Amino acid sequence: METATLVLYYMVQLMKRQGKYVRDDSCRQGSDALVSGSAPGIGGLQSSRATFDVREDGPRHIIEGMKKRIAHTTSAKLRMIQAAFDLFHERGVHATSIDAILEQSGTGKSQFTHYFRNKEGLVHATLQHFYELLRSGGLPFKQTLESWKDVEEWFRLFIEAQRAMGCARACPIGTIGNDLVGSQRRLRQDVGLIFDLTRTSLARFFAAEQARGAIRDGIDSEALADFCFSIMQGGLLVAKIKRESVPFENAVMHALAYLQSLRTSPRQRRRSPRLA
After folding, report:
1. Which helix (H) or strand (E) holds 77?
2. pTM above 0.85?
3. List of residues 6+ apart from 263 with CB closer than 8 A
4. What does the pLDDT read at residue 249?
5. Distance of CA 251 to CAs 39, 67, 268, Å?
């Protein structure tokens, strides 16, 4: 499972622990199944709109994995980081006060000053903490995409996560990044590192497919990864604004159709001079 999915499921787990978890009843969505098998996926899209099936409580093995990995802690610093991440995701950085973070984390101002000095220091620590979780593979998510089905799954999991939160939030890292200004270079770098780590598996997969002749000549694997990543980020934001996942699903369906159009047939691959 792609590590980027942690960006959303990490927050789902925190929300469940804090009694904020919401089902997707208020989030309008497609009714058929694309990924589950009742409609063709990336290997042969036929539907005119995207339709994704979501399990009752989202991917249960992910939630259970989170319970094991993100245990309750008595560390004041970590409680502040977790509370900040939740509130930044829900409200944005500007609309989140230090007092709100302290209240939710059950900590005091002296502890906040000791660990972070100021709000920017807390934002930096929050982003760095999350980056290290992603980089170290400290949570149960697949970090290497090995098939086109994995690419389809990469998109589907973001849709599932968005539905699980009632389409009430977008990407937490994107939400934080949206509140940053040009002078906050360190924080923008933090966000950039997380984004780069998130899209790397896509770029590597596309490059590997191109190397074996499975993608048409002239396709830039890095640009293709940017395309998929932007569909994901934009889809999450639109779904949040409209409180429905249908536009996100439609965008993903057409993105998958485009990816399918770039693939070569086995006969074309056998004739490719790169394999000679």
Report:
1. helix 76-91
2. no
3. 148, 209, 214, 215, 216
4. 96
5. 16, 32, 29
The residue that leads in pLDDT, 84 or 198, is 84
H-helix segments, 117-265: 119-136, 148-164, 172-178, 185-211, 221-242, 246-262
To the nearest 10 degrees (0 to 180), the angle between helices 76-91 and 98-105 is: 130
CATH of 3-275, one of 1.10.357.10, 3.30.450.20, 3.40.50.1110, 3.40.50.720: 1.10.357.10
Amino acid at 221: S
For residues 63 and 13, is the Cβ–Cβ distance under 8 A?
yes
- Compute how many other C-beta atoms are within 10 angstroms of the C-beta atom of residue 47: 16
Residue 127 has pLDDT above 90, yes or no: yes
Question: What tens digit of pLDDT does each residue of 227-260 get?
Answer: 999 999 999 999 999 999 999 999 999 999 999 9
Handedness of CA 155, 95, 244, 241 (dihedral sign): negative
Q: Quick count: other Cβ atoms within 10 Å of Cβ 150? A: 16
The percent of residues in the chain predicted with pLDDT above 70, rounded, is 68
Listed by start position, the domains of the chain span 3-275
Q: Is 258 left (phi over 0), alpha (psi -120 to 50) or beta?
A: alpha
